[in-house]
Amino acid sequence: MGDKNREISIVVIGGSYAGAAAAKRLAALSKKGYSGLKVTLVDKSTHYFHAIGFPKALVDAEYAEKAFLPFSAFFEAGSKHEFVNQKLSRVVDEHHVELDNGQTLYYDYLVLATGGQAPGPINVVGRTKEEGVQEIKQLRQGLDNANSVLIVGGGAVGVEVAGFVASKYPTKKVTLVHSRNRLLPENFRQGISNGAITKLGRLGVKVILNDKVEIPSDFGYASNVGHRVLRGTTSGNEYESDVQILAVGFKVYTEYLEPLEASLGQSLRVERSGAIRVLPTLQLDAPMLPHIFVPGDVNNLPVSTKFGFKAEMQGNTAAGNIKKLIDSGFDKAFKGKDSAKAVAAAAPAVGKWTDYIDLILVPMGPDLGVAQVLKIALGASGIANFLVRQMKSKDFMLGMRKSYFPMTKKAKRE
Ligand SMILES: Cc1cc2nc3c(=O)[nH]c(=O)nc-3n(C[C@H](O)[C@H](O)[C@H](O)COP(=O)(O)OP(=O)(O)OC[C@H]3O[C@@H](n4cnc5c(N)ncnc54)[C@H](O)[C@@H]3O)c2cc1C
C-alpha cells in the first residue's frame, strides 16, 4: 500500500538454493521502484559449495575448484544489498537476529534458509574455499591410494558417488551397503532402483541391500580415510575397506531459534530432527510472526521435497510472499500500535507453495544413469544414460548456479 520506496530491511540467512533464490528475487525489487529496500544475505561460508556436484568433484580436481562460488560476487557492484560472512547464532526477537561476532541485524522480513549438513566432505565442513577444496582433496588422495572403498547409504548421493568412484578407479573394489530393500528414495519407482543396481554392477560395484552398517562413535569426518572393518548389524557381515564414505546422516542445526521459542513460550521445531515447522505458505508456524519464512531443507516438509531445485522453488515462493506482504503495507502496520491487526490482514495476502514436480536424475559416472520423469521410470535403458548425460553428468548443473554470482570474475581479481 502506498510508498513503495519506504525503507525495508530483509535479512536472508543461508545463501544456497533456497536463500539465494529468495535473496536474488527480493534484491531485484529495488530496481522496480522499491528503492528503500535492502537485502542482507548472511552465510557462515565465504563461498557457495555446489554439493550437487560432489560426486564429480570427488574424482575431478579441476571441477572441485570450480564448484565453489564466492558470495562476494552475489550482488552487483554498487548495489546497496550486502553479503555478511557470519554465522547466525540467535533469532533474538521479531525484529532482530544476532550473529556469531555479536553483531545485531534489524529485519522487517526474515528468511531462514540454513538447510542441513550431511557429514563432511559430502557437504564440506570448512567455511572457506581453501578448506573445502582441501577436504575433498584429502578424500581423493585416500581413494588414489586405496584398494577398497565402502560407501554407506544407497540414496541418490551414495549411488552417484559409488558410480563415479567405480568409473574413475575401475580396478578398485567398491562396495555400496544400504539398509533398505531397494536403492534411491522410495517415493520414486522400483524401476530406477533395479536400473541402478544393474548399471552399478556393470561398473563392478558390489551392492548389498538390507544391511545397516554400524558407524563407530569415533567415526569423525577425518577418519573416512584409513583401513577399517565395519559391521553390518542386520547380517553380521564384516566390511573391510581402506576408505569409507558416509552418504547418510543428514542433520539440521536450528538451535538459533531457542531465544524466540523462549519468548513465545512455544516450540517452533520438530523435537527429534530440529526441522523448523512451516505453514503451507512457508511462513514459520507461529501465527503472530507472519514475516518469517523458512524455505528449503531446514523446514519440516516431507523428505520428497529435499532437493536443490525444490529448495530453489521454495525460496522463490517465500520471496513472492514477502513482496505480497510489502505491497499490502504489512511491515509498516506491524511496527505500529496495532500489530495484531497487521497480522490478521497478512493471512489472505500470501500464497501456498505447491510441490508439483516429480523428477530425479542419477548419474553413475560420466556415461551411465537412471532417471524418473513425470512418473516414467527410466532404469536399465540406454535412453536413461542419454538423458542423464545430456542434463546432468557433464557439469552437474553448475552452469545454472553461476548466474547467481555475476561478479565472480571481479571477485577473483580482487
Ligand atoms: C552430495 C549431495 C548431492 C546432492 N545432489 C542433488 C541433486 O542431484 N539434485 C538435487 O535436486 N538435490 C541434490 N542434493 C540436495 C540439495 O543439495 C539440497 O536439497 C539443497 O542444497 C538444499 O538447499 P538449501 O538452500 O535448503 O540448504 P543448503 O544447501 O543446505 O544451504 C544452507 C546454507 O546455509 C548456510 N548456513 C547454515 N547454517 C547457517 C547459520 N547458522 N548461519 C549462516 N549460514 C548458515 C550454509 O553455509 C549454506 O550455504 C544433494 C545433496 C548432497 C549433499
Automatic annotation (TrEMBL):
**Where does the sequence pass through the membrane?**
none
A Pfam family annotated for this UniProt entry = Pyr_redox_2
Q: Name one GO molecular function term.
A: electron-transferring-flavoprotein dehydrogenase activity
Cellular component (GO) terms are: cytoplasm
- What keywords tag this UniProt record? FAD, Flavoprotein, Oxidoreductase
Q: Which family does it belong to?
A: Belongs to the FAD-dependent oxidoreductase family.
Q: Which intervals hold domain FAD/NAD(P)-binding? A: 9-301
**Name of the protein described by the UniProt record:** FAD/NAD(P)-binding domain-containing protein
Task: Tell whether Oxidoreductase is among the UniProt keywords.
Answer: yes
